[in-house]
């Protein structure tokens, strides 16, 4: 008996310690079983208390009366599926007549504390069927990506959502994106995760890093082209527009051939082309975009207009040519001059890290979701890397990328350096040449003037 008591005390102490220090481990060892029992046992009473039951139908009442049985109870939604996961529980519910998905969404907070879970979110899967996702602990506090993720070409598992699911950056579904955030809010870490995810794929990476190249140049071995100043950036973007036009010509040529063949698929973008003809897709990462839009003097203004025009053209027409924009900065609004709001409208994927004011949050979500604006303003300063991700459908999620250090990202890029495609249009911007040019400039700036 004494041995049993000691064992019990040890187990309870271990569970308490795990819950405090390692909530993910606690969930996998104890939490999932306890929470499953709690939810299944309390299900009917909690649903009733949360107003998610419907009164018995007339025919059931009549039947009960005729059979002289007690009045039947109100009924909660049917559980269609119950699945424990590594971060929480998923309930698939079949709604009763008269209920809708909004009822469940509105009761999320009540369900959360009634079931003693950390978070509850819900979404409608189809008419009358709602998926309720519950998390057992704060999954965004220490982000651990699942070992198995659903990887497809041009779809990167970049972060974790607060409901424990994986947040993907899917370039084919949302071709261009804008990432905003104050300084030290986690933009670079997010971008690093993207590069690390893309490194193992058949894709060309192009970087424009106006922070003098400190973020992207260390990853140079996996980049097909890099620019670290607005002058090079202007030329590089023009070269990308030329590449895009070339690809449109290729698609047109292929269309002319297939148009004469009955029942043949007609290509509308690079993904419809036969594999041997398909140009490699390009992801263009732009860090500190505002640096490209600032100017002092007439010449710089001309360069700025050239850059913004090229970016707008790539954003409008790049998708079919497999050229995707990933633009990152602290602010991105009309204060940066003409063309910016037009460009922003094309960047339909939006991610906002902590922002300094409501105006910055509005730059990310003002045109798509007022709720997302509020959520972005409320990001606490101490939780770096926490962000709100939304798209033009108005849907949004709280996400956080895993903390990938620059060293880890460099190692990943070096490991996949052999996958770096050589794009003929971008040869003058190959990282080794850009680095040489930068060294030459800095040497000429520091060299003493000779008489
Ligand atoms: N997802 C994350 N998880 C944990 N810590 C993070 C995360 N993202 C960022 N951080 C921490 O926040 C610090 C700042 O991040 P980061 O350099 O990405 O910010 P930034 O927005 O790019 O800043 P700046 O604009 O000044 O370059 C990092 O040193 C890192 O320690």
Automatic annotation (TrEMBL):
PROSITE patterns: FTSK. SUPFAM superfamilies: P-loop containing nucleoside triphosphate hydrolases. The keyword ATP-binding applies. The keyword ATP-binding applies. ATP binds at residues 181-188. InterPro entries: FtsK/SpoIIIE/SftA (IPR050206), FtsK_dom (IPR002543), P-loop_NTPase (IPR027417). Keywords: ATP-binding, Nucleotide-binding. Residues 163-362 form the FtsK domain. This is Plasmid transfer protein. The lineage of its organism: Bacteria, Bacillati, Actinomycetota, Actinomycetes, Kitasatosporales.
